[in-house]
Write a structure and sequence with these properties.
Length: about 110
């Protein structure tokens, strides 16, 4: 559900088809249920997808909060590759918002 949701949001960003937002929302719902049953394994994925969804909905304050939660939960769960992915996506978010200093910090943290 996680990568399908990320892919749907990337396609929505290009094509602006509501079908992609529906797919992303469905994936979020799947991850929310899974996250409740297995928080250590899925919370970082849920929060990252929620962050990307918030970006698509132009809810930037929420997006930043969810990116930070994703990074923190991945770090706590010692899922380094997911932590790096969340930092990288947060960095790209900041680039799109024209905040180069914050983007640099996040992308550097990814590596």
């Amino acid at each position: 559900a996680f990568y399908r949701g990320l892919t749907a949001l990337a396609q929505w960003d290009i094509l602006r088809s509501r079908n992609f937002m529906k797919v992303a929302k469905s994936c979020l719902n799947e991850l929310k249920i899974g996250q409740k049953n297995s928080p250590i394994n899925l919370s970082h994925s849920y929060y990252l997808l929620k962050a990307e969804y918030s970006v698509a909905k132009k809810k930037h304050g929420l997006a930043e909060r969810f990116f930070s939660l994703s990074i923190r939960h991945a770090e706590e769960g010692k899922v380094l590759h997911e932590q790096a992915l969340a930092c990288e996506r947060f960095g790209f978010y900041y680039l799109r918002r024209n905040n180069h200093e914050a983007a640099y910090e996040q992308i550097r943290a990814a590596y």
